[in-house]
Hints:
There is one protein chain. This protein has one domain: Jelly Rolls (Sandwich). The radius of gyration is 18 Å and the shape is globular. It contains 1 helix and 24 strands. It has an 8-stranded mixed sheet, with no helix packed on it. It is mostly beta strands. The chain starts with a helix and ends with a strand.
Amino acid sequence: MDRKDFLKKGLLGTGMFVATASLGNTMKNEIDEIEPLEPIGYNHLPNTDSKIKDNSVIHKADSRGKADHGWLVSNHTFSFANYHNPKRMHFGVLRVLNDDKVEAARGFGTHPHDNMEIISIPLEGDLEHKDSIGNSAIIASGDIQVMSAGTGIMHSEFNKNNDSLVKFLQIWVYPNKRNVTPRYDQITLDKSKSQNQFQQILSPNADDEGVWIHQDAWFHLGNFENNVETNYQIMKKGNGVYAFILKGSAEIEGQKVETRDGFGVWDIADLNIRSTTEGTEILLMEVPMTM
């Protein structure tokens, strides 16, 4: 299959595309990287080089894969594009956790996805989104965006600003339903709800707080003062939790974690967390460990 036919097919169930373009009048997409994804339906228990107990793993910030394209600097917690580590393929159905920085007026040109739940969380700056089902929007810090790629969708993401970086998390979760109708949604969070507690920002239920996806997953954000203790209760038996430290440091189940570290744990009913610096921000991603 040549490049043109691959684009026409538009399947990201069989590959990952990174397309780049400027915001000028002459946008030209360039496919930089293609990575096969493992088939859905396999055992998603972590196969990792960083297991610290029988039921937990830690991924230090400086152990992540890194891609520097000039216009894009991306740190990959799990295998992605040219970073391939067979021992870091996923955490349960959490397949991708990319920590991205995009230069002013640059971004990802139009590219396809299918059968993946894609969550974008801006941390700084403004990210412009356009897609093939008619959505055009700008998301900024305090927003969360979700896209169910389903049967197939084309979209682009650009740094809206001409003079500053945009920083955001790009997260992919395997769905529990294939070939659904593509959908898009975004909301603005009330940050006061995450002060010294965890605020739900994503769930499987359209009527719950936050956005929703086709998976039995729950995401929570918390912003903590120093030495605040909290307990997170698992929402669904059998799920695991992957904690990503956005800022500061904490102890989670006795494990010390720092800025941009990731810590995953499973076979638990709850999670004990204590912040150890002022202004600690934590993203909790509860996901099924098997399909």
